[in-house]
Design goal:
51% of the residues lie in helices and 6% in strands. By secondary structure, the protein is mostly helical. The strands form three sheets. A three-stranded antiparallel β-sheet has the order 5-6-7. The radius of gyration is 23 Å and the shape is globular. It binds carboxymethyl coenzyme *A. The site of carboxymethyl coenzyme *A has 19 residues, from loops.
Length: 434
């Protein structure tokens, strides 16, 4: 990647007979940009950038990533500090409201969420009519969209009180919905949230306890979940977040926008990668643990094989989240008394990849998904639940980004241009003449 331009002069573009100044948009950290917003009006020309490799769709105060140095910060705070010292709901508050809460602010936020964790019975019944074999991400997207039917008073995207209510309801219902999706697939009854039990502990109990059972879940399990959710809480303009913003830019309500984000996250190149990583590691184990042959298949791009959990559009260095997850994987497995051959295979794969020219030259390092699934598996989740857990973690980021976009006076409905490359004008041919 080339170094950022060291100038505050506008860029200047000559195109045919037109000379255009492209005003700079300054960053507080990382690379600044130039605005091409007036290019079409002045030159009749648009820019082309498949995959938005070079296009900033917005300015944002929320998350900073330096992909070359492997830095991630929420609202300026390093992810390492937040993972170590904060809690998921405190991070959610930070992302959504911009500052770390004071103690009374946090207590009020947590108490309000705690009060709303319960799911109405009719809501539960709607989820119950879906086949048990449904993929959990399909169920999650549908459940979030269903919230729009149950809470119409929180749907107006232009009413701050309604948006605040939708924010609280989404954060409050998410653990209950995700635990229910998990239990339903296994044929178990839904457990109810318990007031005052704590957000993550409530989620873990609703997910893993038997009905009527008093469980004492290990702190290691609750802490590991809290940390993983923090690590996933935001990641600036990734595919699902951009989807949430794009849908929201049409002034669709928060539930519809987040549900669209869930759909985007389900793809194996995005949130679905954590599930794909475990499938890949299991495949290596079941085919005689021949890591080298598998790596050769990947490098030869046989059948489109990829090393899942490796590579990132932005990180061209070790993903800082992967470093934290890797460190905690050992700790969590030891605390829970779990051994996992897949963790050994993952380490072996990583060791080979970090020395191999193919991966080194392309700057392909483990991303957050590489070790995440191993921890979720140790906690007792089936791999189909990994991506819903990613969505659970990403929820505050989606909400924060949607709210930032709605509050930004420069926001316009998202509507990319295209370069038409189809047939030029031609006349209709009657069917008998074709
Ligand atoms: N295994 C093997 N080769 C890879 C991989 C990989 N995981 N990722 C990229 N490459 C190769 C790719 O084939 C290309 O090679 P060449 O130059 O010979 O054509 C080169 O590296 C550049 O890759 P790219 O596809 O142009 O990079 P991208 O920025 O478009 O894609 C990515 C980023 C994350 C989609 C991709 O690295 C990938 O598919 N990784 C595996 C899936 C994965 O782990 N996704 C989770 C991402 S982190 C969590 C999240 O954001 O959801």
């Amino acid at each position: 990647m080339s170094a950022p331009l060291e100038t505050n002069q506008p860029a200047h573009l000559s195109l045919g007979n037109a000379d255009v100044d492209l005003p700079r948009v300054e960053a507080t950290a990382g690379g600044s940009g130039v605005s091409i917003a007036n290019l079409l009006a002045k030159t009749g020309t648009v820019t082309v950038d498949p995959g938005f490799m070079n296009t900033a769709a917005c300015t944002s105060d929320i998350t900073f990533i330096d992909g070359a140095k492997g830095i991630l910060r929420y609202r300026g705070y390093p992810i390492e500090q937040l993972a170590e010292h904060s809690s998921f709901l405190e991070v959610a508050y930070l992302l959504i409201h911009g500052e770390l809460p004071t103690l009374p602010e946090l207590e009020q936020f947590v108490e309000r969420i705690d009060r709303h964790m319960y799911l109405p019975e009719d809501f539960r019944e709607i989820l119950s009519i879906q086949p048990r074999s449904s993929h959990p991400m399909a169920m999650l997207g549908a459940a979030i969209q269903t919230m729009a039917c149950f809470y119409p008073e929180s749907m107006d995207p232009l009413n701050p009180a309604a948006v605040e209510l939708a924010t609280v309801l989404l954060l409050a219902k998410m653990p209950t919905i995700v635990s229910y999706i998990h239990r339903r697939a296994a044929g178990h009854a839904l457990l109810y949230p318990m007031r005052g039990e704590g957000y993550i502990r409530n989620f873990a109990r609703m997910t893993f306890a038997d009905p009527g059972e008093v469980v004492d879940l290990p702190d290691a399990l609750v802490d590991a979940l809290d940390t993983l959710l923090i690590l996933h809480a935001d990641h600036e303009q990734n595919c699902s977040t951009s989807t949430v913003r794009l849908v929201g830019s049409a002034q669709a309500n928060l539930y519809s926008s987040i549900s669209a984000g869930v759909a985007a996250l389900s793809g194996p190149l995005h949130g679905g990668a954590n599930e794909a990583v475990l499938e890949m590691l299991a495949l290596i184990r079941d085919s005689g643990r021949d890591v080298k042959t598998f790596m050769t298949r990947v490098k030869d791009k046989q059948d489109g094989a990829k090393l899942m959990g490796f590579g990132h559009r932005v990180y061209k260095n070790y993903d800082p989240r992967a470093a934290i997850v890797k460190r905690s994987a050992d700790k969590v497995l030891a605390a829970l008394g779990v051994t996992d051959e897949l963790l050994d295979i993952a380490r072996e794969v990583e060791g080979i990849a970090l020395q191999d020219d193919y991966f080194v030259q392309r700057k392909l390092y483990p991303n957050v998904d590489f070790y995440t699934g191993i921890i979720y598996r140790a906690l007792g989740f089936p791999s189909s639940m990994f991506t819903p857990l990613f969505a659970f973690g990403r929820l505050p980021g989606w909400i924060a980004q949607w709210r930032e976009m709605m509050a930004d006076p420069t926001t316009k409905i998202g509507r990319p241009r295209q370069i038409y490359v189809g047939h030029a004008l031609r006349d209709f041919v009657p069917i008998t003449d074709r």
